[in-house]
Design brief:
179 residues; mainly beta; 11-stranded mixed β-sheet; 11 strands; globular
């Protein structure tokens, strides 16, 4: 085969090789185990030296029954905690909770300035563009392994969105569940 006939093939192979790494960063947006579905997981990048990070997502329970997020783990963090924000007078304060209930047929959105997963004692920074592997533990569904995209510092939602996607109408976060 002459070089002029090989050039389009070489160019096509190079284009494909450049496209594939980007394809490898595509992440499933839903993870289902038993009767729980986790959607749109993401985390914010952290500055060098940071020891804590946060992850956000939506958790939906099937109509078959309630469940609770009771913990989790990640290789990148010493421990994972479930946090919420509560109003104390005129100040919003972050507070650790033992569990986050999800009612049957409903969903709970973990988002900035609301319920979220804290990654404590980070072993290294969360870097924009990376995939963060997390295992979320539910009271009934057990462990659900997910991959969260790491978005820029200050992001408000995944993939350049200005909010956490989810069914916000099902849970305003105000009185939807007790801690």
């Amino acid at each position: 085969m002459s070089l002029t006939r090989k050039l389009p093939l070489i160019a096509g192979a190079l284009s494909l090789s450049f496209a594939l790494p980007g394809a490898a960063t595509l992440v499933a947006h839903e993870y289902t185990a038993n009767t729980v579905t986790v959607s749109h997981p993401w985390a914010r990048a952290t500055p060098p030296g940071a020891t804590v990070g946060a992850a956000y997502l939506e958790i939906a329970a099937s109509k078959k029954g309630d469940d609770k997020l009771i913990g989790g783990r990640s290789e990148i963090a010493g421990r994972l905690e479930i946090h919420t924000h509560e109003r104390d007078g005129d100040v919003m304060k972050m507070k650790q909770v033992a569990a986050l209930p999800v009612k049957a047929g409903k969903s709970v959105v973990l988002k900035p300035a609301g319920d979220h997963v804290m990654l404590m004692d980070l072993k290294r920074p969360l870097v924009e563009g990376d995939l963060l592997k997390l295992t979320l533990t539910f009271e009934k569904a057990g462990d659900v392994e997910i991959e969260a995209t790491v978005e820029p510092v200050g992001a408000k939602g995944p993939h350049g969105m200005d909010h956490q996607p989810g069914h916000e109408a099902d849970h305003s976060g105000h009185g939807a569940h007790k801690h």
